[in-house]
Design goal:
Strand content: 5-15%
Strand order of the largest sheet: 5-6-8-7-9
Largest sheet: 5 strands, mixed
Number of helices: 13
């Protein structure tokens, strides 16, 4: 979360919510390598690592050339502008656009320079006969050339985190779905697949818990998922593969004075045996809001 929210590392598109590599030199290649390792390890261990990358990243990872549609996904405004150029079939396109084969590039010190998309691009105007070439060159620059060093660091990290060649058998869409997880919530399966330790499914506290869960708002249920796993997204196979474990605390202090605790590595919930349902609800919502979780159960 800290990595993906740091605007000094990734380029954020407010329109789409996706992240992309910055086209300027940032000195963050080690960070991109680390994020790649994290994504590879997540894939290897069946965890979700939703860094909000667009499909273009997974195409590049699997050696599939990104297209204009991928740029539209990341930056709808840029994509729509290029589509306009592509669709413009009139002879006055040179006068209407007044555009040559260049883009403006931001340097590391904050200055801007003109970057040619093709050889001698500064002296070549976009015209009816070459508008497709311009669009293809622009897309290639934005998604490939401008971020070659940064994306290479990520891909090397990913292959290190998941070194098995089986990854190349995935389609980009499949790989994206597995790593990002999904938001197809079938809440009834969460209770059906839950496991218990120190409690039985028929214990009063467990019945209270599921009654409280059913009464939560949709966003509160998602927050509980994030509380238990670190992300509100669930595995690509659906919530049927998201198995939570609810267990009784090992200490015997007054349960009404305690709060639930989550252990994200095992999707486990330490649930005190509260005396009533209202207290359970109050304590659970407080714990979710304060995100009191640990790496592994004691």
């Amino acid at each position: 979360k800290e990595l993906q929210n740091d605007t000094r590392i990734f380029e954020h598109c407010s329109e789409s919510g996706f992240l992309w590599f910055p086209s300027r030199e940032t000195g963050s290649d080690d960070v991109f390598h680390l994020v790649g390792i994290l994504c590879g390890i997540a894939l290897s261990n069946g965890y979700v690592a939703n860094f909000h990358f667009p499909l273009a990243l997974y195409k590049k990872l699997l050696h599939v050339q990104p297209t204009l549609e991928d740029l539209k996904e990341f930056s709808p405004t840029q994509g729509a502008s290029l589509q306009y150029v592509l669709d413009y079939e009139y002879d006055d396109i040179e006068e209407i656009l007044g555009k040559n084969f260049t883009v403006i590039k931001n340097t590391e010190d904050g200055a801007t320079v003109e970057q040619e998309l093709i050889a001698d691009g500064a002296n070549i105007l976009v015209q009816k006969h070459n508008r497709k070439q311009f669009v293809e060159a622009y897309v290639d620059y934005k998604l490939n050339t401008a971020v070659e060093k940064q994306s290479r660091a990520f891909f090397e990290g990913f292959r290190r985190g998941f070194p098995l060649p089986i990854v190349d058998l995935f389609l980009p869409e499949e790989l994206m779905a597995i790593i990002h997880g999904n938001t197809n919530y079938e809440w009834e399966l969460l209770e059906q697949n839950a496991e218990y330790e120190g409690y039985l499914p028929t214990d009063k506290i467990i019945l209270y818990f599921w009654e409280v869960f059913e009464s939560l708002l949709e966003e509160e249920k998602k927050q509980l998922i994030a509380f238990l796993s670190g992300t509100e997204r669930i595995p690509a196979g659906g919530i049927g593969r998201f198995i939570i474990r609810i267990f009784r605390p090992r200490c015997f202090d007054d349960p009404d004075l305690s709060y639930p605790r989550a252990y994200t590595c095992s999707k486990s919930l330490e649930l005190p045996n509260y005396s009533n349902k209202d207290l359970l609800r109050e304590r659970l919502l407080h714990a979710i809001e304060c995100s009191e979780f640990c790496a592994a159960p004691p």
